[in-house]
Input
Amino acid sequence: MKNNFRFDLSDFLIHFFRDVEQTGANGIVFPEHMGWQNLWEDTFLPANFMLRAALRNGRLWATWSFRNGVRTIYGPDPAVCFTEMPIAAFLEAGHARRAAGEAMSPVALVFPKTALQGMGARQVIYGLSVDARASSGADGAPRIFPESALPLQEQYRFVTHNLNGARNVDWTHEREWRWPYRGDGTNCEQQAEEYGGSVSDWQEIPGLDFYRAGIWGIGVIVETARQANLVISDMLTLVDGRLADRDTFGFVLATSRLPAATQLQDPLRLSQEIADAAVDLEPYFSMSDDLCEEYSLRFGELVSHVEAAAGMPSWGEFGGCWLWLHDNTAPLTRALLRTGRAFVSKNGRYLAHLREFSDSRGLREREDMASRVAEEVSREFETSSCYFSVLNSDDPEAVPFYAGTFDDDIGFFNCAWNA
Output
């Protein structure tokens, strides 16, 4: 259509994250086990920590969006909420509302509108044209309208709207869309009630599984270049671990690199900024076979040198030992992955086989030798690494025995304290 090229329209739906203080009024149902190395120590969960956790788990939670103990989502189905605001308007609102202490931030996942609409997401309905009352929703109970006023299947879309009362209620500026969860969330609700707002793990909370849905072109909005690099590292791990495809991800915007929001109101300017921020994962997969073999050969020679220098094997405990490569974007890591010398564990570690080490050596001796390999790798390839071991097993997915010295600032970890 010729009239849809306007600065106030968008091809995207945005799901934003907020800073969460679990002891405050806006605490959330939260999983005891967050999945792939999402770590927190306190009750404060920053927006970027929540975004990376969602990205790693591939699920957005469907909730009732409680306010003062009352559901704000009507009907029998919880929902995932999105905004249709253009990206420029979202950034402006995110910064302003967070500064005002509201439950919003300029940190978000961005989805193609057509994909979510095809999955059942719809615009909310602001108010009704009939005078109808829903059940009160006291003590967190469902809020249901008579079906004569609004079909049960559509009630998740209702948002209160009143411009003629003693107190105006107007949320139309949020330009909200919602995706309803039609499954059974009883188990989650029972766990949350029994364990004081906690459930066992991320997947116990009903939600939208966006990797399983096969959505392509997902974008990410963060605030700093460091955060953007961590997100790209997460994306690579998801692709290398075959949880997502290369086309799953479209762009990563670091708002610190963007011009003022007013300059992004021009659709052409915004399109150019998104194009400039596009995530091109192809370079990480396009190393030549010859170069990959060269890296693999050099690495093998280095491991052989450490084996030869270690002398006669020293007997000890049985177990598996690998070199844990911390940077999944490094040429060495990409090459070893391509040649089968390295692999991605289910927990997202990039582990390299140390095949040149003698099987006669005990686990502790191989750990020490792997540490020497890590030193040589740092010197020759400028790549950080350490050993990773499992006691009484050669299965890298078994319970870890130990890992060598490393910094929790590496991309493998999503830590609430340095999000």
